[in-house]
Design goal:
132 residues, alpha+beta, Pdz3 Domain, 7-stranded antiparallel beta sheet, 7 strands, 27% helix, globular
């Protein structure tokens, strides 16, 4: 009986450690809900924004250029993918708007149950910033 209890407690401890580690990891399959391509002047040019995804919630539009994601410069698809993959529960973008001004847009990211709901941006804040 003691052996069974020890096995169960060890299993529970392992599950709890795994759950804590998993919570600190980026969410697999995170997306801002955009299509983008490298911009000739640097950054990633937004070509499409999908409704009801974080980029839409944050006010991004085709023609905007994402310059940084959480402080990381993004000039290629690979850099953009790495930056987006590292988003956890908050994101800050520096965006060159179509009017050539720069905005820092930040938001909390919330998720539904895995596989049932896409991510959304809430508590969105934006401010004008100088060119990075």
């Amino acid at each position: 009986m003691k052996r069974l209890a020890r096995t169960i407690l060890t299993s529970l401890a392992t599950v709890m450690v795994v759950a804590v580690v998993a919570a600190a990891q980026p969410v697999q399959g995170m997306t801002l809900g955009i299509q983008a391509e490298p911009n000739h002047g640097g950054g990633m040019l937004v070509t499409k924004v999908f409704a009801d995804y974080p980029a839409d919630d944050m006010g991004l539009a085709p023609g905007d250029v994402i310059v940084t994601v959480d402080g990381d410069v993004v000039n290629t698809h690979a850099q953009m993918r790495r930056a987006v993959d590292n988003i956890r529960d908050h994101v800050t973008l520096v965006v060159k708007k179509r009017n050539n001004g720069y905005e820092e847009v930040s938001a909390d990211i919330v998720y539904g149950s895995p596989g049932t709901e896409r991510p959304h941006a809430v508590k969105v804040k934006s401010k004008t910033v100088p060119r990075p």
